[in-house]
Amino acid sequence: MSGTPQPAPSPSTGGGDLRADCSRCFGLCCVAPAFAASADFAVDKPAGRPCPNLGGDFRCGIHRDLRDRGFPGCTVFDCFGAGQQVAQVTFAGRDWRSAPDTAARMFDTFAVMRPLHELLWYLTEAVALTPPGPLREELGVALTQTRRLTAGSPQELLGLDVDAHRGRVNPLLSRAGELARGDRAGLDRRGAVLVAADLRRVDLVGANLRGAVLLGADLRDVDLTLADLTGADLRGADLRGADLRRALFLHQSQADAARGDHRTGLPPALTRPAHWSLPVTPVRRPAAPRQPRRPHRNGGSPAAGGHRR
Question: Is residue 295 pLDDT above 50, yes or no?
């Protein structure tokens, strides 16, 4: 196909089953993964051990104060609905506390289900972005196959090669992004390491930023229209005033991980993070060298009234 592609449908939200519903989960994201004490987590926690903040009702005891208590990493984690799928479908509502013999398998299954649900989200977005044609049909087949995999038994899921499946899906997603950008395709910075980079004067309209590391990058007032942000690391990126209303494959956890303000444009399906209303520490720039003060003709100074207009 040549020329500018025909308008495609707006991206969807991925469906309710691709949004985390903690009320139907057993706190799996608070138990299954390991995390180390860092800027993201206040304590060390090995895989399979419940976070000390997890309550008996499988809810976080400090959910409203996670950032203030040193757990910002928890606020940006997104299971894409994998938690309730494992809890309510794969294990038919049996929780790991009342059925401790299921705990290890449940946690291992969650580690497989989460990337599958992430692929479901991307494929759903890609189908909505892509006009009718062969590519959209291929995406639809991949979406159906991936959804079928998520319905498997624990044994089937634990025997699945997720990386191989992702390797078959990713080229389709990449082609969908290329088609969506069309004639407006810009810079190709796939996988680029742009940690703390000042990108305010870089034209990123239609840029390919798949997998780019934009940790702490300065993107203030940058137009990211049709920029492919698949898997881009936006932790701490400064998006104040940036336009992401038509960015491609931007999901909620990426926005949650970044910094923004009331001027930041987001796609309609995303929610403006609550912490964006908080003051943002300004980026410090080197001060300009001070120029020597020129003496006045009468030897006085402005403060002493020696300078007259």
Answer: no
* 25 vs 81: CA distance, rounded Å: 9
Alpha carbon of 6 to those of 128, 144, 229, 267, 307: distances in Å? 13, 25, 21, 20, 67
236-241 contacts at long range (C-beta below 8 A, 24 or more positions apart) = 238/280, 238/283, 239/264, 240/264, 240/280
* Of 21, 26, 34, 30, nearest in space to 66 by CA: 30
The answer to whether the CB of 102 falls within 8 A of the CB of 91 is yes
Per-residue model confidence as pLDDT tens digits over 220-266:
999 999 999 999 999 999 999 999 999 999 999 999 999 999 999 99
Q: Rounded to the nearest 5°, which phi and psi values hold at 221?
A: 65, 15
DSSP 8-state assignment for residue 228: B
Q: Return d(Cα 24, Cα 44) in angstroms, integer.
A: 26
